[in-house]
């Protein structure tokens, strides 16, 4: 499945190029509850909030959704099923997996610690201490030496 099929999630991606491998296994639980077991893996292009570079975060998810028609039915689901509320008769594969993918994207995406291509941008503290090194009193000291 192309990443750009995930309309809401693709707003989070740094670029909407790439593919996910997705499998769906539909069955009926206790002859009443439609269930879909989903496997989903691939690389998500995310923007690192430390260096603003794009990196690929690997994703590997399996989850089981219980298809229900109304939020009131959520409490009938056992804990092994995540609820998926059917809002229309026609749902796309992207709609089925999108929420779970969004939940698995870090709020502040970052490279792994000490990643070689993750260059720390100078923080505000670094900029202030650089200016402090350029001490105007150094010039005054030199003037005094000249006077003596
Ligand atoms: Zn980074």
What's the short version?
The chain is an alpha+beta fold.
Q: What report would you give on this structure?
A:
12% of the residues are buried. The model has no long low-confidence stretch (mean pLDDT 85). This protein is α+β, with helices and mostly antiparallel strands. The chain has three helices and four strands. Residues 48, 50-51, 53, 111, 118 line the site of zinc ion. Residues 48, 50-51, 53, 111, 118 line the site of zinc ion (ZN).
Which residue ranges are poorly predicted, with pLDDT under 50 across at least 5 consecutive positions?
none
Average of pLDDT: 85
* Major pleated sheet: 4 strands, mixed
The beta-strand count equals: 4
> What's the gyration radius in Å?
26 Å
Integer tally of domains:
1
How do the helices and strands follow one another from N- to C-terminus? Answer: EEEEHHH
Number of alpha- plus pi-helical segments: 3
Physical arrangement of strands within the biggest beta sheet: 1-2-3-4
Question: Which ligands appear in the coordinates?
Answer: zinc ion
Terminal-residue CA separation: 79 Å
What would the principal axes of the Cα set say about the shape?
elongated
SSE diagram, text form:
Layout: E1 20-29, E2 33-47, E3 54-68, E4 82-85, H1 93-103, H2 124-133, H3 136-147
Parallel strand pairs: 3-4
Antiparallel strand pairs: 1-2, 2-3
The structure holds zinc ion (ZN).
Entry keywords:
4 strands, 4-stranded mixed sheet, elongated, binds zinc ion, single chain, alpha+beta, 148 residues
